[in-house]
Amino acid sequence: MKTDLIKQLPLVALVLLFQIPLGSYAQELHLSISELFALTSKNSERIKLAQWSVEQSKEKIGLAKSARLPDIETDISYSYLSDITIWDPHFNNREIAAMPHNGMKFGLEATQIIFAGGRINKNIEKESLASQVAYLNLEKDEADVKLLLVGKYLDLYKLIKQKVVFEKNIKLSLLRLKNIESLNAEGMVTHNDITRSQLQLSRLELNLEEVDNSIEIINHELCVTLGLAEHTQIYPEEVDERLIQSERTYDDWMAEAVSKLPENRISALQLQLAQNELDLVKAQRLPVLNFFADNHLQRPLTIVVPAQDIFLNEYQIGLKLKYDISSLYHVKEKISLAKHGISYSETAVKLQLQEIDQRVHHAFIKYKEAISKMDTYRKNVELAQENYEQIEVKYFNQLALLVDMIDASNEKLNAELQLQNGQAERIFNFYKLERTTGNL
User: Fold this and answer.
1) Which of 56, 300, 376, 426 is packed most tightly, with the most Cβ within 10 A?
2) Is the distance from CB of 81 to CB of 104 less than 8 angstroms?
3) Full-prediction pTM beyond 0.70?
4) What is the SS3 assignment for 400?
5) How far apart are CA 396 and CA 186, in angstroms?
6) Mind listing the pLDDT tens digit of every residue in the chain (440 residues)?
7) DSSP H or E stretch at residue 416
8) Count of CB atoms within 10 A of residue 290's CB?
9) Do residues 368 and 318 touch, judged by C-beta distance below 8 A?
10) How many angstroms separate the CA atoms of 416 and 60, rounded?
């Protein structure tokens, strides 16, 4: 029985081998645009960097708030004290006075800011505004990456559609070549017609190879960016037409852009930061009031003669008012600079609104244009197909030349490719409009 089991081991190993999933080497992934966006937010390295900036800005808020807490310091020291040498005023006579040689000191001091001209609160506000800017930069970067990847995704979508078109036309060209060879055998057409048909077939096969290579390149780029396994083959899903249709007017899109677009909100926050900086500079002209308390324990007592080797403990509490008089003339230039910063930010806000208007208008027009083109592309495909069928019938009835049929075939191919490109273009223009208005 043991011998039979040993004989069966190769068969068992073969069965287990076929049970190993091949997906680790090559697997298909049917991906929708919403799933693409989810993977982008999760795996994009650029977005991870922006997320890190957001976390860092949150920590800076906590650091600014910690300025409200008291400062507590402690110090401890040990020293060796030498004997004291005493001279008379003429340095003629000297005496040696013995000193305790072991010196020790321990101190504890606490300081609490009571008033600092609003600097602490303004610093907290500054870091809070910076945190909001960091979050909006994250939102902006995420939208930029999404638009970039949806462009790659639609390139892949378009290329796969083009591959189908080329494969269909190659089959049609092979069938046509077979029919022409039959006509040539009957002496109804010349061998030159076969050569021309073979040349067209060769071009179609070369185009198909180029499309396959482009698919591989873009697929690899998407896999790397999305954090997918290297040999994953992505297949874009058909886009729901309802998702890329909108009855919103230009004014509707523009209103959304003003309220939602991260860039516009960032410029508004930059203006608040500039105003905050002016308040911080002005606060430097105000005094700082601190509450303090300290306690010191030390030995020996050296303020008496002879010195005594005893511990002396003392403490004090009180208020300390500090005012930097030089701020009256040093801060003047800083205030002027801060005011220029506010003027700059106000101009930047106005410029941002102008740029938003231009970008939204451009994206809106291109979106409408892409929709209009689709009607033309669909009609062109119908006409090109009808024209090709008519020329093909005429050719095989010897009422048209091969060059006419090849031209009709090329027109049909171009019309089909334009339709697929136009579909991808329409989808991309919709998402570009979404990005331009802060909806992506």
Assistant:
1) 426
2) no
3) yes
4) coil
5) 12
6) 444 434 444 443 433 433 444 444 568 899 888 899 999 888 888 888 888 999 999 999 999 999 889 999 999 999 998 888 888 888 888 888 888 888 889 999 999 988 888 888 999 999 999 999 999 999 999 999 999 999 999 999 999 999 999 998 899 889 888 888 888 888 877 788 888 889 989 999 999 999 999 999 999 999 988 888 888 999 998 877 776 777 888 999 999 999 999 999 999 999 999 999 999 999 988 899 999 899 988 888 888 878 888 888 888 999 999 888 888 888 888 899 999 999 999 999 999 999 999 999 999 999 999 988 988 999 999 999 999 888 888 878 877 777 888 888 888 888 988 998 998 999 999 999 999 998 88
7) helix 402-436
8) 17
9) no
10) 57
Residue 330 in tokens: 């040093």
Closest CA to 282 of 238, 224, 342, 241: 342
Give CA–CA dist 278/336, Å, rounded.
9
**H helices present in 284-401, as ranges:** 327-396
Nearest to 239 by CA among 162, 169, 153, 334: 153
- 3-state SS class at 188: coil
Taking the alpha carbons of 153, 158, 164, 166 in that order, is the dihedral positive or negative? negative
- Three state DSSP letters for 3-34: HHHHHHHHHHHHHHHHHCCHHHCCEEEEECHH
Contact 112, 317 (CB under 8 A): no
C-alpha 111/C-alpha 1 separation (Å) is 88
Q: Specify whether the CB–CB gap between 406 and 371 falls below 8 A.
A: no
Decide if 283 contacts 122 (C-beta within 8 A). yes
Indicate the helix (H) or strand (E) that contains 50. helix 45-65
- Can you spell out the DSSP letters for 204-254? HHHHHHHHHHHHHHHHHHHHHHHT--TTEEEEEPPPPGGGG-----HHHHH
| CA gap 152, 146 in Å, rounded | 10
Type of residue found at 171 = K
CA distance readout (Å), 54 to 51, 59, 132, 425: 5, 9, 8, 34
Q: Which two tokens stand for residue 301?
A: 């007592």
In sequence order, which residues have a C-beta less than 8 Å from that of residue 429 and are 6 or more positions away?
A: 363, 366, 367, 369, 370
